[in-house]
Amino acid sequence: MLNNLKNRFHLAARILFTGQTQSGLRDEIPSITPEEVADAKEFFLLNKYFIFGHARSGTTLLVRLIRVHPVVHCNYQAHFFTRPPLLQSLVMDTDVEVWLSRRSNRWNQGKDLSTLVLRVSADFIMERDARRVGKQIVGDKSPSSLLHGKAVQLMHKVYPDARLIYIIRDGRDAVVSHRFQSFIDASQHLSKDDLAIREAFQHDPEPFLQGERSIFTPRGLQRSVEGWVQNATETEQLGRELYNEHYISLRYEDLLERPYREMIRLWEFLDADVNVSGLDDLIASELQQNPDADWQRQKAGDLVEPLKKGKQGSWQDLFTVDDRLIFKRVGGRTLVDWGYEKNLDW
Question: What is the value of pTM for the model shown?
Answer without folding.
Answer: 0.90
